[in-house]
Structures are given as structure tokens and as C-alpha cells.
Design goal:
- InterPro entries: Histidine_triad_CS, Histidine_triad_HIT, HIT-like, HIT-like_sf.
- This is Histidine triad domain protein.
- It comes from Nitrosotalea sinensis.
- It holds the Pfam family HIT.
- Strands 1-2-3-5-4 form a five-stranded antiparallel beta sheet, with helices on one face.
- The longest helix is centred in the middle third of the chain and has 22 residues.
- The mean pLDDT is 89.
- It starts with a helix and ends with a helix.
- It has three helices and five strands, in the order H-E-E-E-H-E-E-H.
- The chain is of the alpha+beta class.
- It has one domain: HIT family, subunit A (2-Layer Sandwich), CATH 3.30.428.10.
- It binds zinc ion.
- The site of zinc ion has 5 residues, from helix 1.
């Protein structure tokens, strides 16, 4: 199976590695949203977060503050966003699970994608549906 991130883990592809331990690695995003935008990922290949065990997800996210502290210290960013995309429709480009750490700068501003405005009724209905689905698992 061809996977760019697995190749980076195996050193078959170059990357700007900013963190590495036995099971995880973090690299600079080649197409950053902001200066310092980085990706934290497990070395083991999983496509989506729902393919991982709860423990593996915990292990992955436990690395995020480690990497984020380094990015903040290095860039002088005022804050950061964490993003985690699953599936093409969610803008997941590389099908190897990864967490985006996107530093934010007061002087630049924080541009998200366009927001939709939902009605309270729609939100109530959907919230109940989500709660029911979570509690039935
Ligand atoms: Zn992979």
C-alpha cells in the first residue's frame, strides 16, 4: 500500500520532522494554513480516527500538547487550533490519520471557512439524535 506518511515514517520520503518517539511522529505541513502548521500522527497506519482503539487515540492526542508547546515557543503564536479530518469530504488529503496543529497570530487574525447559521430547532433535533446514537453504543 502506498502511503506518503508511512514512507515518511520509514524515511523513504523527506519531511520536516519536528518530533519523534517510538510510536509517533510530527512533521511540518507542506501546505500550511499558517506559519508553523504541523501534523502529529501515529507511526502505525490507520486511515481514520474511527479505525483506532480508544487507547491509540489517547496516545495520539497526548502528543499534541507536546508538539503545540514547541510550536508556540518557536513561532511566538498567540494561540492554536487543533484539526483532525476524516474522509475526502472532510478535506482529508492523506489517508493516514493525523492531527493538525495550526498556530494563530493576533496580528493576522483567525480565518475559518464560512460558517452556516443553524436554527435552534434544527440544533435541538440534531443534538438529541446525536445523544441517542452515542448512548446506544
Ligand atoms: Zn500510512
Amino acid at each position: 500500500m502506498d502511503c506518503l506518511f508511512c514512507d515518511i515514517v520509514k524515511r523513504k520520503q523527506d519531511a520536516h520532522i519536528i518530533y519523534e518517539d517510538d510510536s509517533h511522529i510530527a512533521i511540518m505541513d507542506k501546505y500550511p494554513i499558517q506559519n508553523g502548521h504541523s501534523l502529529v500522527m501515529p507511526k502505525l497506519h490507520h486511515e481514520k480516527i474511527i479505525d483506532m482503539s480508544n487507547d491509540e487515540v489517547g496516545q495520539l492526542f497526548s502528543r499534541v500538547p507536546i508538539v503545540a508547546r514547541g510550536i508556540l515557543a518557536a513561532t511566538g503564536a498567540d494561540g492554536f487550533n487543533i484539526g483532525q479530518n476524516n474522509g475526502k469530504s472532510a478535506n482529508q488529503i492523506i489517508p493516514h490519520v493525523h492531527v493538525h496543529v495550526i498556530p494563530r497570530y493576533q496580528k493576522v487574525g483567525n480565518t475559518w471557512a464560512r460558517r452556516m447559521i443553524a436554527s435552534n430547532g434544527d440544533l435541538d433535533t440534531l443534538a438529541k439524535k446525536i445523544r441517542d446514537n452515542i448512548s446506544s453504543r
